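Re: the 385-residue chain
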Amino acid sequence: MPKVAALIVAAGRGHRFGGEIPKQYCALYGEPVLRHTLSKFVAHPDVNATVTVIHPDDRALYNEAAAGLGVIEPVSGGPSRQESVYNGLEALANIQPDAVLIHDAARPFFTDALISDIVAALDLHVGAAPGIPVADTLKRVRDGFVETTVDRSDLWRVQTPQGFRYPEILAAHKAAAGMNLTDDAAIAEKAGFNVVMLDGVKGNTKITRAEDLDMIGLARAAQWEYRTGQGFDVHRFEPGDKVQLCGVSIDHDKALAGHSDADVGLHALTDAILGAAAAGDIGEHFPPTDPQWLGANSSIFLRYAAKLIMDMDAKIVNVDVTLICETPKVAPHRAKMRALLADLLNLEVDRVGIKATTTEKLGFTGRHEGIAAQALATIRVRAEE
């Protein structure tokens, strides 16, 4: 598997955008545009490292946008996009990736599938760029008058991320110093490298002006729909000295019986997330008859469900788990459980609910025979157009 780095270009000042802060730090759905972009690369399984090129004056804005994402220390940009990218490529020499994905920070609507397609294309090609065939009629205009109609049959609108084999694009950038070319595919072309064109994503829009952000925000907000899934799970007690609940190991006079670690809370929550995606249940994805899951940490199942949501280009909005038991007491461990689930799902802690209740000594939980859990998960999905 090649080592892939993502290089995010965020050093621009956004003169056409206007406003008090550069466009990549403006809020979109309550978070900086740059954070949306970084989060997708950080979460993608094909991307091993992510570095951002920023303007030195924007360090405080960058720190806020990248907080908690685990990205590499940012790099200072140059006076042009080309020089900024070169600075980033030079910085990546410390980790020597096999390939690099170069992306504009103000283009947050790319998909995870597009990243995968570009990385796969680099097995066969030095460079790969996504794009959309030009659909509008094009005119060449001189002095305000139409001079001629331009043949559009082989014209494409190019997007990012653009992917390249790292040694080749670094050498191409060195050779192109001072040329001020408009994108990295052009630099690869100058070096004589073939760049394959891939189908881009229709909504992979670059934010250029303030009204773009307003229009995109309104349009995208109108296209969201919300789906809710529920999960329920039960595990009986067996001899032991601790139980695993919502990822936390709690000392107890019994253990929970199960094929994996019997974490009833994580199992119910995994089912809730799968249910919101209409993707079956935990037993379909991780059969209890499969020996590879014997004693497995249930966080594996929850991360899998979260990645499934990410691959849908969707987002988990909030989750809520109720643990049903007489013992052990959950309250002393609630904060740790919430923090752990927030980390596993890449959510803010205030989007994670953990509750506990008893059945007033009724039923199997009331008789201290086991623990039950129920969970709800809400996800945000792009609505069908």
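The chain has a mean pLDDT of 91.
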